[in-house]
Amino acid sequence: xxxxxxxxxxxxxxxxxxxxxxxxxxxxxxxxxxxxxxxxxxxxxxxxxxxxxxxxxxxxxxxxxxxxxxxxxxxxxxxxxxxxxxxxxxxxxxxxxxxxxxxxxxxxxxxxxxxxxxxxxxxxxxxxxxxxxxxxxxxxxxxxxxxxxxxxxxxxxxxxxx
Length: 162
Fold this sequence. Notes:
Strand order of the largest sheet: 2-1-4-3
Number of strands: 4
Structural class: alpha+beta
Order of helices and strands: HHHHEHHHEHEE
CATH class of the largest domain: Mainly Beta
Shape: globular
Number of domains: 2
Helix content: 40-55%
Strand content: 5-15%
CATH superfamily of the largest domain: FAS1 domain
Radius of gyration: 28 Å
């Protein structure tokens, strides 16, 4: 006789349980929404306004006067790295600068170790201002601030000294 449970108390318990479940689901959905919004806004803040979605490699590859260095980036394997998240600073000798140097394209193509070394001397982690590049590297930046989605590209007048 005392085992009788009223249907009114069962109904109250079920309603409370359902309300708690809805509250937890709503809280979880709100948390996920806030996280997605935060991550999305942070990603937008790190993309330079002139980037148009191109990586530093794609920017180098799109400039006619730097096609020789774009080929060197590709052959050295660094092109794949420069397509990833940066930021990177890439000092790109113009085709004329490469032709005027002691280092010929043929020599670089024959010597993969030298090729990687020369290319690596033009790549920097982080974004370096053009003025600092000119003062510390002893080169002249011909085209300043070719922005990319993952860094910046500077066309320079010579092969950077190792």
